[in-house]
Each structure stands twice: as structure tokens, then as C-alpha cells.
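Q: Predict the bound structure with flavin-adenine dinucleotide.
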Amino acid sequence: MKQQILVIGAGFGGVWSALSAARLLDMHNRNDVEITLLAPQAELRIRPRFYETDVHKMFAPLDALFDSVGVHFIKGTAERIDELTKTVGYRDEDGRQGTLAYDRLVLAAGSQLARPTVPGLAVHAFDVDQIEAAVRLENHLKSLKNRPASDARNTVVVAGGGFTGIETGTEMPARLQSVLGDDQNIRIIIIDRAPQIGATMGDGIRPSIIEASEHLGIEWVVNASVAAIDANGVTLADGRRIQSHTVIWTVGFRANPLTEHLNSVRDGQGRLHVDVNLKVLGQEHIYAAGDVAYAATDDLGNFAAMSCQHAISLGRHAGNNVVADLLGVAPIPYRQPKYVTCLDLGVWGAVYTEGWDRQLKLVKEPAKELKTQINTQWIYPPAADRTTALAAADPMIPVA
Ligand SMILES: Cc1cc2nc3c(=O)[nH]c(=O)nc-3n(C[C@H](O)[C@H](O)[C@H](O)COP(=O)(O)OP(=O)(O)OC[C@H]3O[C@@H](n4cnc5c(N)ncnc54)[C@H](O)[C@@H]3O)c2cc1C
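A: Predicted complex:
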């Protein structure tokens, strides 16, 4: 009977875990270990592009890639992890329940938009968290042209002025204009709790956010929070009212609730604390990668962000290290000292920084070119060719 490595999730963390596990098995000429990946779709969905148009195209199929490296794919959704029996309960697309046994598990089920109990949020707000939600937003934007012109129709409110809110908001003038035409009085309003524009992005980036917002005509309402959402707009905590048919919620992300099935320590976003080899603290057989992992990137106190650049590298290390654990060879400790930020700012351009203190390196067109390259090439999976795919999964390849 073959030993079983089970990976949950086909995002950046999961795909690179599976490829990297296959790579180390290949290097040791081992065919007595099976890698299985469980996810609702054999697709790498490109979440960082969900604020763009044509969002239904933002995925890469994975069947041929998995076939090329011998990863067995199971279409289903994990519902339960039992660390004592080393099994995962799941449900397939027809609703049937099944159980998978593992010798080593990599949990890479990603994150989800946090949805607090703001009245009306669940019914009336849009978001760009998952592809289905982003498609729903896109269809809604297209349908606005069929409504009579009004302030509410012509106004998009973005709740949250962090990374996702800024990228979504700065894309909206062009998207709304392409639907409604150039002659309409369009308003894009970003609402944020912080006292400054782009407060969470740091001083290196803020001037670019301010300049881009002015250029694009984006209004910021700072020191404010959304108290309620309805079909015609938002009410702020101080009673102010903004009429809008399009409210996009972008505030906060939480690790997948599967993390709560494990007896371990979690951070404020629900991420599992892991050791330097990405094994979940308190667990013997379970590793974590991507947005579910709270992993130190260096010895200076920095931790992986919920980001692709970290998920890819975490995946390559976790996959390598579950195999190393099974084979009894040395693991590769996770280290990712370089951190970069590339923030899209709509037709104004983009801004690119390096370091955790976000030192400005590129602005406007050169940064936009880099962002386009990252989003259309770098974060896509490798070709479905065994040699190419395994070589690309080397944990020592720097991501940024
Ligand atoms: C709008 C937006 C913009 C972003 N922009 C950037 C950016 O510019 N740069 C950047 O680095 N990051 C960006 N991010 C963050 C980035 O997308 C995530 O950090 C990254 O996708 C995390 O990878 P992951 O593999 O952990 O999770 P995901 O990519 O979310 O993948 C999770 C996988 O797990 C599967 N899954 C979920 N639940 C289950 C279950 N119960 N059973 C089985 N499978 C399951 C999902 O189907 C999916 O295949 C952005 C995110 C959003 C939403």
C-alpha cells in the first residue's frame, strides 16, 4: 500500500505544494508515495485579478499539469479533518460524502473575505473575493446601463481602503465609464476607518495613492465606517448617507474555517502557527501553506502576509517538507526575506516597493508594466510538462 500525501486546496499554496512534493519524490526515485489533491475545481483561480474585467477568464486549468507530474486530483470540498484517525471527510460535487486517509496532510484551503454582521451586507454588498462573486459584480455593473440615470446608479462605494479596496476602487472609473459612457457624472467613493488615505500601505506608497485618486477623481471618506447597507446605498456610523446601487465590501480576510478543526494555535486572522518547516504547531502529520499559515519569513519578526508571493513559496516548502518527513531526509526551512508590494492604481499606473518598510522603487507606467507581468505571467502555473513543472517547484527559487 502506497503512503498518502493529501493536499487540500488548489490555490497557490496547494498547487505548489503538490508540485514540490512530486519533485522531491522524483529526485529520490520513489513511486511508493501517492500525492492526492482535493479541491472543488481542478483550476488555479487567479484571485489577485478578480477586480479586473472579464473575470470569468481568470483561472488556469490544472488537469494536464497534475497528470504530467502524477498528482491524483479529487473534485470535492473538505468538511472535516480528524487528526486522530488521520482522515479527511469531504463531499463531492454530487453531494456524496467520502473519506480520504493520509500519512501527511498539507492544508492549503486559503482565506475568505470576513463578513461581519453589518445589516444588509449579506444581501446587498458585492465583493471580489471569489470568482463567482466577482462575476456577479461584473454582471451587475453591465446591467447598470439598463437603469435610469441617477446618483445611486452612477456611484460605486468601496468599503475598505486597504490593498484590495484600493485596487478595486481605482479600477472602477474605467469600468463604470465603459458601461455608462464618458458623459455621465460618475462617483467612486472609498470608505475607510483610518484617519488617512491609504493608511495601512505605508508612507512610501501613500503619495502615489493620493495622486492616483486625485487623477481618477476618487473620493475618500476617512475616519468612517459602514453601519448599514441597503439596495440604495450605505449609511455610515455617524449617520451620513451615500446613495449607491453598487457597494463593494473589501474589509478583512480570514483563514479558511478548516483551520478550526485542528488542535493548534491560531493568529488573529485564524491562521495556524507553523514551525520553520511549516509543520502545524502541536501536529505530527499536518503542514500548512498559503493564507492558512502563520509563518515567520525571517528572524527579524516578519511573518508571511496573505499574498501570492508568500503562498507560492510556502507551498514549495510545505510540499518538499512533507515528502522529506516521510522519506526521512533533511527538510528545507522556510525563509523568504525579500518582500515586495506592487499595487495597481487603475489607468493612472501602479506603484512598486521593496522591503517590509515599502521603499519606493517604481511608479506609474514602469510599475504598471511590472504589475501586468506579475498578474499575467509570474503567478500562473508552469506548463504541463513534467521536467518544466518539477524544476519550477524548487523551494530555493526566489519568488519576488
Ligand atoms: C481581489 C484580490 C486581490 C489580491 N491581490 C493580490 C496581489 O496583488 N498580490 C498578492 O500577492 N496577493 C493578492 N491577493 C491575495 C492572494 O490572492 C491570496 O493570498 C492567495 O490566493 C492565497 O493563496 P492560497 O493558495 O492560500 O489560497 P487560494 O488562492 O484562495 O486557494 C484556496 C484553494 O482552496 C480551495 N478550498 C477552499 N476550501 C476548500 C475545502 N473546504 N476543501 C477543499 N478545497 C478548498 C479553493 O477552492 C482554492 O482552490 C489578492 C486577493 C484578492 C481577493
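A: The chain has nine helices and 23 strands.
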